[in-house]
């Protein structure tokens, strides 16, 4: 395969594919080396607690500083190594390669890449970033056309990685819900919607937030205006009506009394809410609400309509 390359002298020549790729080999190798150094530094036995206890913003400040410093340090090291291996102008390739490396990391994270294995993709990502930088920035190799192609690819990758990330997140949430240790019980949602469904496989609970259609999820007081539902095992202290100890959200409720309002259904009042407790499918379901947008009748109706749902019921947000 032949490609056309604009030479420094202004002429156009025909060169083989291997010759066209030759100027990219050393920059790609430098990128891979820098990625390997990033892995090595990350795997050192750092005492993160010492950094988090420093003055300022603690752990947040430390990680923000690291996120800002790493690209700068990597770019400077890249410039030095590129000069050593004879790439000129090294500053141009290092600068563009550093920017592309950051964009590659952002796009990978946006596509759903996470976890410890993501760190080990650094050599590949930086090798690709530095090779692309050389392809557009080296004299006699780069061209306005290649800059345009690179910009077009980045623009197309932004929505594509967003779709991939949403899909992976949806699959992850579905797997978590399917692994729930308690039945996925939920009421009918007439005028309401369910959000933030999550199964705690460690604590053995499952919970979500029900909001009226008029309340946006971005509302600061959404918890007070909605209904928090928790499904969990029956606690030893649950002996209604005298003692109704239940688990609501991530906390264990006060074992106060409750009144029975229907078979296997009880009602109690806290200082700022109303709580309906139902025993269904061998577990305890707690619906906590009673704010300005939730009536007691709605809570009672929801408690009566509790039934086991499929995972898709909780994913359509």
Report a brief summary of the structure.
By secondary structure, this protein is of the alpha+beta class.
How far apart, in Å, are the first and last alpha carbons?
A: 50 Å
**Mean of all residue-level pLDDT scores:** 85
What best-fitting shape do the alpha-carbon axes yield?
elongated
> From N to C, what is the helix and strand string?
EEHHHHHHHEEEHEEEEEEEEEHEH
Oligomer: single chain
Radius of gyration: 29 Å
Major sheet details: 7 strands, antiparallel
List low-pLDDT spans. Answer: 1-13
- Proportion of strand residues: 15-25%
| Beta strand count | 15
Number of domains: 2
Strand order of the largest sheet: 4-5-6-14-13-12-11
Give the helix level as a range of percent.
40-55%
Structural class: alpha+beta
User: How many helix segments?
Assistant: 10
Notable characteristics:
seven-stranded antiparallel sheet, two-stranded antiparallel ribbon, disordered N terminus, alpha+beta, 317 residues
What report would you give on this structure?
This protein is α+β, with helices and mostly antiparallel strands and 317 residues long. The protein has 2 domains: 15-175, no CATH class; 185-315, no CATH class. It contains 10 helices and 15 strands. The protein has helices at residues 17-42, 48-52, 58-84, 90-110, 116-119, 122-137, 144-178, 222-225, 296-304, 312-315; strands at residues 2-6, 12-16, 185-186, 192-200, 205-212, 227-232, 238-239, 243-244, 247-248, 251-252, 259-262, 265-269, 274-280, 283-289, 307-308. The strands form 5 sheets. Strands 4-5-6-14-13-12-11 form a 7-stranded antiparallel sheet. A two-stranded antiparallel sheet has the order 1-2. Helix 1 (17-42) runs antiparallel to helix 3 and helix 4 crosses helix 6. The longest helix is centred in the middle third of the chain and has 35 residues, at 144-178. The two termini are 50 Å apart.
């Amino acid at each position: 395969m032949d490609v056309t390359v604009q030479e420094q002298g202004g002429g156009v020549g025909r060169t083989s594919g291997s010759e066209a790729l030759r100027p990219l080999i050393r920059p790609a190798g430098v990128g891979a080396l820098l990625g390997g150094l990033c892995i090595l530094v990350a795997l050192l036995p750092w005492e993160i607690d010492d950094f988090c206890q420093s003055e300022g913003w603690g752990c947040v400040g430390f990680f923000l500083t690291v996120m800002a410093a790493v690209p700068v340090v990597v770019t400077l090291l890249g410039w030095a190594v590129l000069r050593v291996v004879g790439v000129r102008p090294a500053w141009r390739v290092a600068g563009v390669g550093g920017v592309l490396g950051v964009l590659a990391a952002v796009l990978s994270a946006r596509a759903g890449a996470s976890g410890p294995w993501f760190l080990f993709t650094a050599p590949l990502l930086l090798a690709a970033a530095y090779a692309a930088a050389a392809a557009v920035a080296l004299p006699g190799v780069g061209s306005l056309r290649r800059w345009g192609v690179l910009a077009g690819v980045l623009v197309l990758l932004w929505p594509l990685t967003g779709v991939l990330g949403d899909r992976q997140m949806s699959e992850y949430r579905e797997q978590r819900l399917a692994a729930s240790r308690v039945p996925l019980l939920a009421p009918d949602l007439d005028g309401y919607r369910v959000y933030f469904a999550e199964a705690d496989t460690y604590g053995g609970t499952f919970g979500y937030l029900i909001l009226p259609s008029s309340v946006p999820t971005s509302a600061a007081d959404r918890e007070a205006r909605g209904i928090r539902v928790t499904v969990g095992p029956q606690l030893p202290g649950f002996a209604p009506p005298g003692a109704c100890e239940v688990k609501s959200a991530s906390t264990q409720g006060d074992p106060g009394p409750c009144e029975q309002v229907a078979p296997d259904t009880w009602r109690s009042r806290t200082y700022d809410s109303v709580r309906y407790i139902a025993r269904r499918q061998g577990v305890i379901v707690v619906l906590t609400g009673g704010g300005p947008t939730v009536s007691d009748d709605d809570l009672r109706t929801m408690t009566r309509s509790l039934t086991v749902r499929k995972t898709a019921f909780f994913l359509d947000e």
